[in-house]
């Protein structure tokens, strides 16, 4: 019996839309299977090309640093979290060269992705409301990471929410009630995540995104008003969030370390990260296994109040300390290579998504965990990188 790899690949990719509702222990399985069958198809159908190596260069650079890094064990753990940079480019190449993914297929993926977010939101609210604790903003946002089975870090919830809103503005949907439901739920997910970097950028990038979206002018106006009303309502009645924002302008934040002030903690982290960046090998870095130990040593000597390990909270510094200029150049080559396959009608959405990520890299190590890598690659390689020239229309 002949195996239909193309059918299996499309089925696996479709299941990746359920990321938020898959239990933690199996969340990567659809992606891993997608990668596995893509590798088989790539070589079985002989669609390889010498230039493909550029797509795998960043992963190879990460692996190369194991040769000179200090903590080999942690280095392998980190490399394992970066595996999607190895197997998902195979899927990208198979999809592009075999023209397997149509616009209508992406639309169905988007609908399932948003539905999964709604189900996650319902599950989260049900779980939280039955907990014997005071209902407060801080308790809600911290519960995202501890919810049974489906716990996920708030930073990734905020990114998923923004990208999901992008997808709703990327497609034309005659069922406006459903579209507003999806946008509203994702907006609530964004707000309860409490990630200030995302929340501060959101109004600006969303306004710009709406201007270039496929929505009709009247729908753009309705969408702006809807987002504005919901956002204003949540912020006005959210004293905890206002308090967290006020930390940024408080001079005390930058004079001493306070474990009750996240901005103060971040400032201390950046101090050590920048210090370490100055002492790292500028060309090849210190290796992916050494960064953790080097930063911890700095925290212990300069900011003992921190009392635990924190990553650099800056993706650029993390890559530079670990892999040097070579690492930064390799990921730039990767992004440039995949951008060349983006169709004209998708290019503006791809660019906005990339800008959003480049901004988030300033404040968070988005690619530090496997979930972050999976989300990053899924949207840049597939959702906003479908080179089918048909106009997206949900009811087509």
Descriptive keywords:
disordered C terminus; single chain; 396 residues; 17 helices; mainly alpha
Tell how many strands the DSSP assignment holds.
0
State which percent range the strand residues make up: under 5%
Work out the helicity level. 55-70%
If you average the pLDDT, what whole number results?
87
Give the end-to-end Cα distance, rounded to a whole number of Å.
35 Å
Number of helices: 17
Spatial shape: globular
> Radius of gyration, Cα only, in angstroms?
21 Å
From N to C, what is the helix and strand string? HHHHHHHHHHHHHHHHH
Contiguous uncertain segments of 5+ residues: 389-396
**Biggest sheet descriptor:** none
Q: Helix- and strand-based class?
A: mainly alpha
Describe the structure.
With 396 residues, the chain is mainly alpha-helical. It has 17 helices and no strands. The longest helix has 27 residues, at 103-129. It starts with a helix and ends in a 13-residue tail after the last helix.
Topology of this structure?
Layout: H1 5-15, H2 29-44, H3 53-64, H4 72-81, H5 84-98, H6 103-129, H7 137-143, H8 154-170, H9 176-193, H10 196-212, H11 217-236, H12 239-246, H13 262-279, H14 291-302, H15 315-339, H16 344-363, H17 370-383
Helix pairs in contact: 1-2, 2-5, 3-15, 5-17, 6-8, 6-9, 8-9, 8-10, 8-17, 9-11, 10-11, 10-16, 13-14, 13-15
